[in-house]
Write a structure and sequence with these properties.
heterodimer, A: about 525 residues, alpha/beta, Rossmann fold, GMP Synthetase, Chain A, domain 3, 2 domains, 7-stranded mixed sheet, 21 helices, B: about 850 residues, alpha+beta, Rhopdopsin 7-helix transmembrane proteins, Beta-Lactamase, 6-stranded antiparallel sheet, 5-stranded mixed sheet, 13 strands, about 60% helix
């Protein structure tokens, strides 16, 4: 029986137990599920060429053996198999291949195979997210057929693009606009059209990258009425709401906010920087957003509970291991270093970890370093009687700068852009920073070559526009940041010639990506000092 | 006629439902429903009696009927409030007050004029009464109640307390009631009691709604009393209605029986009573209690039966049977705890041909879930639980393959002793709550019985079967063959004994676990060969028996040959460098051709196998009356000094051949034999063992005959490849010795002469005492002689230096105790010391 049929039959308790029951498990039971499914995955891997290669020919017989013997992997370990779509080498037949951007020009895409069973788990866990997003307490949810959904997430071949297709097998949600129509639209068109439709028909569920959700919300606030023509085709209920909202806004001398128009059942957000947007979104929409985490390689792996105070990992998506921050830093500085990993029941509160996943149900990734960092907030939520560790998504690993979940910029890609631009940049560091509205951007601190100072036309605006052009050429997602979200994603600061050399003389090396705040201040102080001097 | 029949039928139906409900466990909802039935009974009963114009008169029954009707809205409201769990005190009180006022107005003729009877042109009676203005009060009440009811229903749906589907029968009932009542006001059809009929439909809808919500169960109801009551009610109606017309008919049509008319009517009604009683009882039985009675009877029989048996097979048969008789299910699998497999495995099925591959691992989430639930549950319940998440896809496929629809855990105290897995019900029907309750009851009385039977079977199996091979043990085999012999005394019966050759050597060579595996392999072959008719057993340590009823000598020999060949192919599944050959000596005797009774059959077969053993092993000997096998037992050869003498010339020839290739080997073998024997004597080994070591020493390098001369005599350092070739000489030695069957006992010692104490030697990297003492002695002696004699690649080392080297390598290359002892005896006795004990 489909999900919506069971909702109709009021099987709410059974549905809750099935989809959200993992929150009722204790840590021991969760670990049992994890270990059991890992052994299944090991068996599947043991029968395929990819698995045999990763296992060095000897199939581990226990979880401990698996952790001790199999090394941590990155996408390079899979690139030859996955980019050439060698399905015969995989642990199970892929039903669909999901793609995402990788390293810009050098490796434009990453591909990840999804087996049928993985898709089932993905669907079930997404339904759990929907249920939890509409709930205010244990066992309570209000998702039903015909709910109107606006998806503000990337379409296929990105993982989030699977959602409408997966969910339609279980629940007849009314997607605005329908996937059939949306297919031919750009991401921006889809969002605009969907939101317009929502204005006319009403909206129950909004699922978006937090940055997108915030941008759309702000756009509404800044929008002015477009006269009577915009009211054509509006549902009477929405018409009443719109009129009431306009009256209210006039009275309170403020712009229109989504909460004036919509009585939302669920607001779901994902993506880097979500934590900066959640409060604002709650204010704008009148409901607290539920943060989830989904990625191309691991699928949908974590969700907040009804309390919306941190995420919990789904026990049946992947086997989770955690690399402590200290170990992660050693790994990043020493290629080939195999850091220690810890399991869900071995974590320390307030410690930040890089997540390592082994995808279940025939997935390809084994002990895969995701590059995502989580902070363990608590080992339980006593108030809500949840006995599982709770996490907050911190950011990508320091060597990757992710802006609003749209683009991932690595040291290599910045260097490529600089090389392509042929700008006489002697040295640089890159930082992820936020503006006064908490919008993220990339801050490049550059030092020009001495030789160019007298010959080239140089100022930070020129450099910025020059680099921007190459970033856009290099990474299409970068372009979207500006076009879609109105984010100015790049700031360039030029430091005095010789600053980096002097810094190194005084303090030793400096991290190229996301250097420590004090190091950056020292660097800038040296630059200022040289100017003053 | 319908004017009477419809109210009569309605009255009958209401009475039936009412009586049925008297026996169920009542809650407030059921009580309110019964009160509503009373109002329906008043409504239709009053209508019926009015139409029959009975005493005290039409007007009275009309008021009763209408009074009953006016009670319905209030009771309806109360019932739905209770059903939904809505309080509504205020409205309830208002409605009650209004209803009481209406009833008073009704009985005081304030609502309607007094009912009068008029005759129609067709000669039928019609009842006429007219409404007065206060009739608006009940009309208002009805509308108010309807609105209030819809509000309550809507709110409960909105609040998700109940689904619209739950109210479907109620809404249908109300619609029909409204339709019937409206139609009754239309003059053309109002003369028919459509309102009564609509009321009946409504009551049925209400029953359906309440029953669907499991507010009561209609099974424990019907008894003889119920049937009496119903019969009485029906007869009363008939009596009142038909007694006069029947009497009139008798008087008019059969005047000759006029004086017996009373008797005839009494007879007629008596027969009618009997007929109606039986019919109603049967109807009620069929409707409500037949299944329950049958179920109770079956359960009683089952619980008695399981107390009478301790046989697991019989018990599981009974269990499966009682379930199949009560639940429409084809496949049932009884999975019992198998500790050695860490799983609950299907051991019995509804059909003996059913696959028994179904199993639940101890760590299966299904097992954990059932252990927690401690009651039967459907596959859907499991699928919708969080535990389903950790099920392997292969396990899911297994459940799909077996079409499992329901699980029944079997507990003995708190221990889960088994799981009953039931396939989907026939026609993919759903497992009802009744089914699950029944299964739980069955499980509760079966758990302990099954555990006991399982324990008994395990103990019985342990007592009667050999632990390692699973075959019958010797004692039980004798019991079995006695019975088999009696059963086939008129036919023929063959006994075959299989005695594995040199099995202790096999154990020594390849280890006890390999030996055990070989024994298990032989047992499997015998079980498969014997089939269902044959009886196989582990007759002795390395001896197996196979009894084949209805088998003659020729067939027995063919079977024996087949088994012998299979054993000869070995049991090694690993890619080992060693070919683990195993041979068997077989003795056959067949009754009645070569034995006159069971004792003779056994002893003749034993003689045959003994003869086979004594005369070269690895052969099949059939006992015949003509050529009795030799009974004299010879001391078989391994410790017989003559054995070595038999092969001495061969060995000499071989070592001489090596001498040609490697000039050091012949003397070297003699020296090693001398040193090793002295060491063995110093350790305190017995004479036979010392002799064994000496012989092993003489033969230990015999394999060098297969090594190319240029490598053997190479003066420079050997390359890795050449060293690997040299290492092969140990295997070559073994291969050669294997062809000297009576000397195979020296193989373990020869095999161990290049092994090291720390496990870094070759060829098998045996560590410490894994290498037999003979091998360890040889290793020291071999090394010492190699060091102290000239080699192609170096000059001899001094004895002191060699002994120092042995001391240095004690604990790494050599057994430290033996090394110390060797150094001691060499220092004490010199090169040519005598053997010491």
């Amino acid at each position: 029986m489909r999900f919506d049929e069971r909702v109709k039959k009021k099987e709410n308790e059974s549905l809750w137990n099935e989809y959200c029951g993992f929150l009722d498990l204790d840590l021991k039971s969760t670990m049992e599920i994890q270990q059991r499914l890992l052994m299944e995955q090991i068996q599947l891997l043991g029968n395929c060429r990819l698995g045999k290669r990763l296992f060095s020919g000897q199939v581990p017989q226990s979880v401990d053996e698996f952790r001790n013997r199999v090394r941590l992997t990155s996408y390079e370990d899979y690139a030859d198999t996955l980019l050439s779509r060698r399905r015969q080498d995989l642990p199970s037949e892929p039903s669909v291949w999901i793609e995402t951007t990788w390293e810009g020009g050098r490796h434009p895409v990453k591909a990840a195979p999804y087996s049928e069973k993985m898709l089932n788990t993905f669907r079930n866990n997404t339904l759990a997210c929907l249920m939890l997003a509409s709930s205010q307490g244990r066992g309570d949810f209000s998702i039903a057929a015909q709910d109107k959904v606006l998806y503000g997430v990337a379409p296929l071949p990105y993982a989030t693009g699977l959602l409408p297709h997966l969910l339609e097998e279980e629940i007849a949600l009314e997607v605005l606009p329908s996937p059939r129509v949306a297919q031919s639209m750009s991401f921006k068109e889809r969002n605009v059209t969907g939101f317009k439709m929502g204005m006319k028909q009403g909206l129950d569920i909004f699922f978006a990258l937090s940055a997108v959700a915030y941008y759309i919300s702000m756009a509404l606030q800044e929008a002015k009425g477009k006269g009577a023509s915009s009211l054509l085709g509006v549902h009477p209920k929405m018409l009443v709401r719109m009129l009431r909202a306009r009256y209210q806004c006039e009275k309170e001398h403020r712009g229109l906010q989504p909460r004036d128009l919509f009585k939302m059942k669920a607001l779901i957000v994902a993506g880097t920087d979500s934590r900066y947007y959640k409060d604002k979104l709650e204010k704008l929409w009148g409901v607290r957003p539920l943060e989830i985490f989904a990625g191309t390689e691991p699928t949908c792996i974590a969700t907040e509970s009804w309390a919306r105070n941190g995420m919990y990992f789904f026990p049946d998506s992947c086997f989770y291991e955690f690399v402590p921050e200290k170990e992660m830093m050693i790994r990043l500085s020493q290629p080939g270093y195999q850091p220690k990993t810890y399991l869900l029941d071995e974590l320390t509160v307030d410690e930040t970890y890089e997540l390592v996943v082994t995808v279940f149900k025939g997935g390809a990734f084994v002990r895969y370093l995701t590059g995502d960092c989580y902070r363990c907030l608590a080992m339980e939520d006593r108030e809500n009687h949840i006995e599982l560790p709770r996490f907050e998504f911190v950011d990508r690993i320091p060597t990757l700068i992710d802006i609003a979940g749209f683009t991932r910029i690595s040291e290599k890609s910045i260097q490529d852009v600089i090389d392509l631009s042929k700008l006489a940049i002697e040295d640089w560091i890159a930082l992820k920073e936020y503006d006064e509205q908490w919008r993220p951007y990339l801050h490049l601190i550059v030092e020009m070559k001495k030789s160019s100072v007298d010959t080239d036309a140089l100022n930070s605006r020129l450099l910025k526009s020059h680099l921007q052009a190459y970033f856009t050429y290099f990474d299409s997602d970068y372009d979207d940041l500006q076009k879609m979200l109105g984010i100015d994603p790049l700031k360039v600061t030029i430091v005095c010639c010789g600053t980096f050399a002097r810094y190194r003389q005084q303090n030793g090396s400096i991290q190229k990506m996301n250097a420590k705040k004090y190091d950056v201040l020292d660097l800038l102080a040296i630059s200022r000092g040289s100017r003053e001097g | 006629m319908p004017t009477v029949i419809i109210p009569a039928f309605a009255l009958f139906a209401y009475s039936l439902i009412f009586v049925a409900l008297t026996a169920v466990k009542k809650n407030k909802t059921v009580l309110l429903f019964m009160m509503m039935l009373v109002s329906f009974i008043l409504f239709s009963g009053g209508s019926l009696l009015m139409r029959l114009m009975l005493w005290p008169g039409v007007d009275f029954w009309c008021k009763v009927s209408i009074g009953g009707m006016f009670l319905i809205p209030y009771l309806y409201y109360c019932l739905i409030c209770e059903f939904v769990g809505y309080q509504g005190f205020f409205q309830r009180r208002v409605f009650l007050l209004m209803t009481l006022v209406i009833l008073m107005l009704n009985f005081s003729n304030a609502l309607f004029t007094e009912a009068t009877v008029v005759s129609t042109s067709a000669g039928q009676a019609e009842f006429i009464f007219e409404a007065k203005w206060p009739i608006l009060i009940p009309v208002v009440l009805v509308f108010w109640v309807v609105i209030a009811l819809f509000r309550i229903i809507f709110r409960s749906i909105q609040n998700k307390e109940r689904a619209l589907n739950d109210y479907a029968p109620l809404l249908i009932g109300i619609s029909v009631l409204a339709l019937g009542t409206t139609l009754a006001t239309i003059p053309a059809i109002g003369k028919y009691p459509l309102d009564t009929l609509a009321g009946l439909v409504n009551a049925c809808c209400l029953v359906t709604m309440l029953y669907r919500q499991r507010l009561f169960k209609l099974t424990p109801v019907v008894s003889r009393g119920t049937a009496y009551a119903l019969t009485a009610a029906v007869i009363l109606v008939f009596l009142v209605n038909f007694i006069q017309p029947i009497e009139r008919t008798i008087l008019l049509r059969f005047p000759q029986f006029s004086e017996y008319s009373t008797s005839l009517i009494v007879l007629l009604f008596t027969l009618l009573i009997i007929g109606i009683y039986h019919t109603s009882k049967q109807f009620l039985d069929v409707m409500f209690s037949r299944d329950e009675n049958r179920q109770t009877r079956l359960l009683k029989e089952y619980s008695e039966a399981i107390n009478r048996t301790i046989q697991l097979e019989e018990l599981s048969g009974l269990l499966i049977q009682v379930i199949r008789e009560n639940v429409a299910v084809e496949k049932i699998y009884l999975c019992l705890k198998k500790e050695e497999e860490h799983a609950y495995r299907a051991l019995y099925g509804a059909n003996m041909l059913d696959s028994k591959q179904l199993m639940f691992a101890f760590d299966s989430p299904c097992v954990k879930w059932l252990s927690m639930k401690q009651q039967s549950a459907t596959m859907n319940d499991f699928r919708h639980s969080v535990w389903y998440k950790s099920l392997w896809e292969t396990e899911k496929e297994q459940f799909d393959q077996y079409q499992i629809g329901c699980f029944v855990p079997l507990f003995s105290d708190t221990e889960l002793v088994g799981i009953l897995a039931l396939s989907e019900k026939n026609g993919h029907a759903r497992y009802t709550q009744d089914n699950l309750m029944f299964l739980d009851f069955i499980a509760s009385i079966s758990g302990i019985a099954i555990k006991n039977a399982h324990l008994y079977e395990m103990i019985y199996h342990k007592a009667s079967h050999d632990n390692l091979t699973g075959l019958l043990n010797r004692e039980f085999f004798f019991g079995k063959i006695e019975k088999a012999f009696q059963d086939h005394i008129q036919s023929s019966i063959a006994l075959i004994l299989f005695n594995l050759d040199d099995f202790s050597l096999y154990n020594e060579l390849y280890g006890r676990s390999e030996g055990d595996r070989a024994l298990q392999g032989v047992a499997e072959i015998l079980s498969a060969t014997g089939g269902r008719a044959g009886i196989s057993a582990r007759y002795g340590n390395k001896e197996f028996a196979l009894l084949l009823p209805d088998t003659d000598g020729q067939a027995a020999r063919k079977i024996a040959e087949m088994v012998k060949n299979q054993i000869g192919r070995g049991f090694d599944e690993t890619e080992d460098q060693w070919e683990k050959n195993l041979t068997v000596s077989v003795g056959i005797c067949v009754y009645p051709y070569a034995a006159g009774n069971l004792q003779e059959l056994i002893s003749h077969t034993e003689m045959a196998v003994f003869y086979a053993k004594q005369n070269g092993k690895n052969q099949i000997i059939s006992y015949t009356m003509e050529e009795k096998p030799i009974l004299k037992k010879e001391n078989p050869g391994k410790n017989n000094p003559r054995v070595y003498a038999q092969y001495a010339s061969t060995i000499y020839a071989l070592t001489a051949a090596i001498d040609v290739k490697d000039h050091y080997t012949f003397n070297h073998s003699n020296n090693v034999a001398n040193y090793a024997a002295r060491l063995a004597a110093a350790v305190g080994l017995n004479e036979e063992h010392i002799e064994l070591i000496r012989e092993a020493a003489l033969l230990h390098d015999i394999g060098k005959i297969g090594i190319p001369e240029d490598i053997l005599n190479k003066t420079s350092t050997l390359t890795e490849e050449e060293y690997a070739v040299i290492q092969q000489h140990v295997e070559n030695s073994i291969s050669i010795i294997r062809h000297l069957p009576s000397l195979t006992y020296v193989i373990p010692a020869v095999l161990g002469h290049h092994e090291r104490w720390d496990g870094q030697g070759y060829p098998r990297r045996l560590k410490q005492e894994e290498n037999p003492i003979a091998g360890r002695c040889l290793a020291i002696a071999d090394a010492y002689d190699a060091m102290t004699t000239k080699r192609s690649y170096r000059n001899p080392m001094s004895k002191e230096k060699a002994l120092a080297e042995i001391e240095r390598c004690a604990g790494t290359q050599f057994d430290p105790t033996l090394a110390a002892l060797f150094v001691q005896i060499m220092k004490e006795d010199g090169e040519t010391g005598e053997l010491k004990k």
